[in-house]
Every structure is written in structure tokens, then in C-alpha cells.
Amino acid sequence: MDDAPAWGIEPVPRRLQVLGLLDQGLLWGNLGVSLLVLVAGTYLVPALSLPEAFLAIVLGSLIGNAMLGTAALIGADARVPAMVLMRAPLGQHGSWAPTVLNAAQCIGWAIFELLIIATAVAALSDELFGFRGQWLWTLVFGGIALAMALLGPIGFVRKFVRKFAVWAVLASLLYLTWWALDGAGVGTLWDRAGEGGSSVLDGIDLVVAITVSWIPLVADYTRFARDRVSAFWGTAAGYFLAGAWLWMLGAILFFSRDITDPAALPVAVAAGGVGAILALLAVTVDETDEAFANSYSAAVSIQNLAPRLPQRALLVAVCVTATVGALTIDLLSYESFLLMLGSFFVPLFGVLLADWLAAGARYGERDVFSGPAVRWGMLAAWIAGFAVYQWLHPVGPSWWTDAIGEGADLGIGATLPSFVVSLALGLGVATLGRRRF
Predict the structure, then answer these.
(1) Lesser CB count within 10 Å: N end or C end of the chain?
(2) Rg (Cα) of the chain, in Å, rounded?
């Protein structure tokens, strides 16, 4: 079977729609295992108690994965990459705006992932062998990310996830869970009161926001899904199980290992002995799949702007850029810009969903490739959703947040309100005439 690593913007032929329910579940379960999500779980506590944090995690994961699964279904339906899919709601040229933003955020997050991986492995290497060599680990994992990207989604699932990643990661998470609970007194942890300063709604918003951050990428992979059903359930269930597990484990570790700073979590785990170090190392190495996903999606997104550019050459260019960036860029100053870019994509899904529903909940090739140059009404609905997000929760560089102000802070978060606004406006535009605006 051809792994089709270089399939471009054209609809994937039926012969290559081979990733079934299990494949999709393994893919998105693997992508859900992230050191960043593990650390994010510590941000829910101690402001929330453990029962409150678990409630936020379950509800946020259900909401976020319902949205992610729906985006996955739409991608399997249209059989094109995510940014090419945006031609349907925004127009042939209108899709260029989210494409540029998505390529920028994907390259930025690929840099961030390589930096996180290299930093963690360097710390473990220093602990075990007295050799840090972060620059060397950056080059090693940059090369691994490139090798994965050149495999393409089908090859990645069949040659890496099925044969290695799923077993190593599952064993590591089981061990880390046992280690987190061992001698901690589960009843004591469960009864510990939260300190306040945050609400369950805030926690739900955070979980939803991180989950739906995959929406601008999901169709790049589910276009190879066997059918709509396997795309929806494989993506939603796979990411739900892995993501919720990591969120909960992070919250438990914060309490059970007396962590006072979320950034100290990897160090605390590394101090837990050889077993904990090896488990953390496996989770950290598995983080490379996120660098792969961001690199692959950056290259595929760029092809929406320039379809004739060879995908393999783009993959090499993106991975080299990410590796050099991880070696040279102070990404802490860039992280705020990445967060601002992320606030564009929740309302973008709102207009995509509105247009897809207006099309009868099914996209054909004509919907994607035969629309007008720009659909101004849908663009306006998207920007309105972004404005609501920033009004409720300004994120971005200091010059941006200083201009916006402190935000409304209505206690309902920003993710879901911005999605609802863009969805409602998009449905209104579609009602007036799907192809006139």
C-alpha cells in the first residue's frame, strides 16, 4: 500500500482512505499524549479541588472533543487538507488568510515542541550521564520529526504508532499513574479543598481551548479516514481518552508530589527513580509526534497558497526551520503571539460548521473548489468571533493586550462564546444566501 506521503490539495482518492476507526483512535490518542497537557493539568489546581478539576476536565473534554470530532468528520467528508477546506466557507482567496495564520502557528508550535523535548531530554541526560547537550538533542529530534513527516499520515500510523508508540506510551502512563498515587492517600487528595481564584467554568474553558487547538490541523489527517463515522469517533474518542488521562494525571501529581510550580513537574518526576525517569522519557520522546504533526500541517497549509510546490521539499524546509528556530529563538517572547494566533481558529471552526450545515451537512468537491473568490459575509462572521474572544480574554504580545485592555472577564471564558457568535453569524449569512456572500 502506498503511504502517500506527498498527497497534495486534491481530494484523496478512495483507494487511499484506509485509516479505520482503530487507526484514527490510535493516531489521535497518540497526539493527545503530551507533556504540555500533563503540565497544563497542574494549572487547574490548587485553585480547584480535585473533584472540581476532574469535573472541568470531563466536561471540557466532552465539549472540546465533540467539536474536534465534527471537524474531523468534515475533513473526511471533503477529503482535502484543513486549509483547503476553508475555501468552502471563506472563498478561494478568502482561505488564504487562515492559511497564512495556520502555517505561522504550526511552524511556531513545531519550534516550541522541539524546544520542550530537547530541554526535557537534556535534563534527563544530565541527571543520568552528566551530559546535557541540548543542541545535540534538538538536532536529533528535529531529524526524527522530519522522518515522521516524510512517512505521511498513513505511514506514520502504520510504521510508528501501531508498532511502537502505542505500547511504550501506554506502559509509561500506567507506571506514572501508579507512581503518582503510590502512598499519596487517594481519600486525602480527594477531600482536599480548593484554594479559590478560579472556577469550574474557567477550567472547562482551558480544557476546551487546548483540545480544539487541533481543529486547524485535523482534516490534514482525517482526509485519509475510511469514512465519516471512523473519523468522528476515532478522533473524538482517541483524543478524549488520552487527553483526559493526562489532564487528570497532571492535577494528581501537583497534589501527590507537593509541586508548587507547574514548570517543576518534569523535575519532580525525574526525581522519582529510574522507573519514573524512563516513563517520563517515553512520554517526552512521544512528544515528537506533535512536532511531526505541526511540521506536516505547515507544509500542507502552504500548498493551499502554492499547490505546485513539492510537498517533500516543503517538509524539509519546515523541519529545518523549526530545528534552527529551536536552537536560536527565545520562544518565550513568541509564545504570546502563538496564543493570539490560536484565538483565530475557534471562531474559524464556527463559520466552517455553519457553512457545512447550510450545505446539507455534506461537502462535495464543487463546494470546495468552485466557490467565489471571497465570501465577505463569512469573513466578517469569523472576525466578529475573534473580536469576541479578545474582548473576553485578550491574549497576545504586550502591545496588543495593552491596546485591548483587561477584557470583560464575565466568568464564562472566551472559547465557547467566540465559537457561538461566529456560528450564529455564519448561519445567518448562509440563510441569506450561501453563495451570495
Answers:
(1) N
(2) 21
- Name the DSSP class of 369: H
Count the neighbouring beta carbons within 10 Å of the beta carbon of residue 270.
18
- State the pTM of this model: 0.90
The SS3 call for residue 225 is: strand
321-340 pLDDT, tens per residue? 999 999 987 655 556 676 77
Cell numbers linked to 261: 510550580
C-alpha–C-alpha distance, residues 325 and 331, integer Å: 9
- For residues 155 and 157, what is the distance between their CA atoms, to the nearest angstrom? 5
Task: Determine the longest span between alpha carbons in the chain, in angstroms.
Answer: 67
CA distance 216 to 104: 12
If one counts every other C-beta atom within 10 angstroms of the C-beta of residue 139, the result is: 17
Helix, strand, or coil here: 249? Answer: helix
| pLDDT given at position 393 | 84
Grid cell, residue 283, equals: 512520554
Q: Are 351 and 378 in contact (CB under 8 A)?
A: yes
Cell triple for 233: 469517533
Confidence at residue 29, expressed as pLDDT on a 0 to 100 scale: 94
**Closest among 175, 203, 110, 178 to 149, alpha carbons compared:** 110
Burial of 183 (0-12, 13-18, 19+ CB in 10 A): exposed
What pLDDT score does 294 carry? 95
Using DSSP, state whether 141 is helix, strand or coil: helix
DSSP track, 49-113: -HHHHHHHHHHHHHHHHHHHHHHHHHHHHHTS-HHHHTHHHH-TTTTHHHHHHHHHHHHHHHHHH
**397: exposed, middle or buried (C-beta count within 10 Å: 0-12, 13-18, 19+)?**
middle
Label residue 59 exposed, middle or buried (CB < 10 Å: 0-12, 13-18, 19+): middle
Distance CA 214, CA 209 (A): 9
Q: Of 223, 231, 215, whose CA–CA distance to 101 is shortest? A: 215
Closest CA to 396 of 434, 339, 315: 339
Rounded distance between C-alpha atoms, residue 255 and residue 45, angstroms: 8
- The cell for 150 is 516524510
d(CA 364, CA 133): 51
The closest of 250, 213, 207, 189 to 58, measured between CA atoms, is 207
Query: Under a CB-based contact definition with an 8 Å cutoff, are residues 212 and 67 in contact?
Result: yes
